Amino acid sequence: MEFLLKLDTERNASPTGKKVAIIGGGPAGLSAAIELFRSGHGVHVYEKMPEPGGLLLFGMPEYRINKEKVRETIRKLKDLGIVFYTNKNVGNDIPLSEIIRDYDAVLIATGAWENNRLCIPGESLDGIYYALDFIIKYHLMKLGYSDINLPKLYGHVAVIGGGLTAVDACHIAQQNKVDSISLIYRRGKVHAPAGRKIIENLEASGVKVLEYTQPIEFLGELGRVKTIKAVKTKFVGDRESSRLCIVEDSVHLIPADNVLIAVGLKPSIPNNGSSFNLEIREDGRTNFENVFVAGDALLGPSYVGFALRSGKKTAELINEYLRKK
Ligand SMILES: Cc1cc2nc3c(=O)[nH]c(=O)nc-3n(C[C@H](O)[C@H](O)[C@H](O)COP(=O)(O)OP(=O)(O)OC[C@H]3O[C@@H](n4cnc5c(N)ncnc54)[C@H](O)[C@@H]3O)c2cc1C
Question: How far is CA 10 from the centre of its chain?
């Protein structure tokens, strides 16, 4: 994908003397950085990972994105004069309030990396991982970060969820020598957010798809997961008012030596302690006139195209604010 390289990076304004901090170097942060740089502002990107790129580098598989092109784009942005601070987790390493104090405007583009939990008994047993954390570690390792400790998958692997994260987790599991991989989804293949076709392709590649199946408990031995207790589900009622219900007497057991949970992600807004309350508005503005939000941090889990557009659109709001300041 060369979308970022295609963005016009030509500076079309003289320096304004204004400084903008962007928190998060994923597609939303990068497209905003280009737009703000072109408008003449000084742009500093704070990134918690060892390099910027966000899920383009650490979430998406190689066959869907050219990672060397992403790195090349970022090198180009550095050469232009956009400043990147890596390994800087805003909210942990630097207080958000300090950044807000030191910059004319701040853009929060921190994505949606917070895992939804199933909230069922046994969820903290060894051998159970949140799929996005696992995927990020996998890509860090593939990209040459040798200090990463990626747990080895073995035996029966169960992936829970029906979105792209669950599908990518199955693909990673397929690269290990495992006895079986099951994809457990509480609705039908037709309802899966990843799309029916992708789920069927997964099935054709050997993954057992257990649709209309909902885990209710993880059972373990010596602190490690061994089995998933699950029930069957079905839709009840007519189209408009149909509800997903548990099928009576449908409790059954699924063997699972490793579990990857991918049941949704939430925006990961930097921790600001209890120093102030950040209220985020739909258009990317907040209750602080100089603080803005873009990308998955604003929209929830979305797609690269939407994140790029959101970054650019919010950069225009920041420009408008800085012009009036
Ligand atoms: C497994 C997976 C596969 C996907 N595949 C596709 C696909 O094939 N096609 C597609 O269009 N979309 C795909 N998506 C969705 C797409 O990756 C996202 O919608 C997009 O990356 C969002 O961009 P963003 O810039 O808002 O956030 P992100 O890409 O998530 O970037 C956020 C950045 O903020 C940084 N950050 C977070 N918190 C802090 C902090 N406190 N301080 C400093 N930095 C911080 C992160 O390290 C990261 O670099 C996929 C998502 C996942 C999870």
Answer: 30
Range of the domain at 55: 3-112+267-324
Can you tell me the distance from the alpha carbon of 268 to that of 294, in angstroms, rounded to the nearest whole number? 12
Residues in the chain, overall count = 325
Q: What is the band of 9 on the pLDDT scale with cuts at 50, 70, 90?
A: low
Domain check: are 99 and 216 in the same one?
Answer: no
Looking at the structure, tell me whether residues 165 and 284 fall in a common domain.
Answer: no
**CA–centroid distance, residue 105 to ligand 1 (Å):** 22
Centre of ligand 1 to C-alpha 311, Å, is 12
- CB of 268 within 6 A of ligand 1: the answer is yes
CATH number of domain containing 187: 3.50.50.60
Ligand 1 atom at shortest distance from the alpha carbon of 270: 41
Query: Does residue 105 sit in the same domain as residue 198?
Result: no
Ligand 1 midpoint to CA 38 (Å): 23
Q: Is the CB of 163 under 6 A from ligand 1?
A: no
ipTM score assigned to the predicted complex: 0.99
* DSSP string computed for 194-254: T-HHHHHHHHHTT-EEE-SEEEEEEEEETTEEEEEEEEEEEEES-TTT-EEEEPTT--EEE
Q: Which of 60, 100, 198, 268 is the best mutation target for the ligand 1 pocket, counting ligand atoms within 8 Å of the beta carbon and taking the most?
A: 60
pLDDT in tens, 48-90: 999 999 999 999 999 999 999 999 999 999 999 999 999 999 9
* Ligand 1: nearest atom to the Cα of 294: 26
